[in-house]
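ugh ok fine here u go
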Amino acid sequence: MENFADVKYVLDGFLFIMMGILVMWMAAGFAMLESGLTRSKNNATVLTKNIALFAISCIMYYFVGYNLMYRDGGSIMGSFSTISMETAADAAYPAAADFFFQVVFVATAASVISGSIAERMKLWPFLIFVVVLSGVIYPLQGHWTWGGSELGGIIAGFSDFAGSTIVHSVGGWAALAGVLILGARKGKYGKDGGVRPIPGSNLTLATLGTFILWM
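structure:
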């Protein structure tokens, strides 16, 4: 049985890493899709934003978000402590592998927002929002579901399917709030209310990004 436990420990950790790599690969899809569907003059900002949001998400989730989402605290949130990468002797999988698997989902939620506010929002305000999203907003609602508290104890039996609520819905609602506040891209509408087309810079790149996300 000890040998079986060791094999399971290794395979579970390996599965965390491989599935995390596939989720992280979505970042390439988001970057290609966004840069392909925006104007050439904004491509550098779009690509910088996609790299920076991943870096910020990793830092904030490491120092604040992970324990706020998973550690014991209360029904609303976990604890404000820094994650330890040391794996307990009786753990079922490596702690670092679990962190990697979780943090790529945080960055994915931020990437959903990134595409929605492309060419609408400057770089620094967006990155500040990513700090708040990855350090507070995402971990709090994640604690209500994957963290085990069932929507803060409000709804018993709540179940998330494949991150549809934790990742995609949170990213989508945050993106909706952003576009409602920011409005349309400058130059999208004329004085008479007519729509002006803003073609993307590279439909080939956008198509490749679409297939990466689809996969």
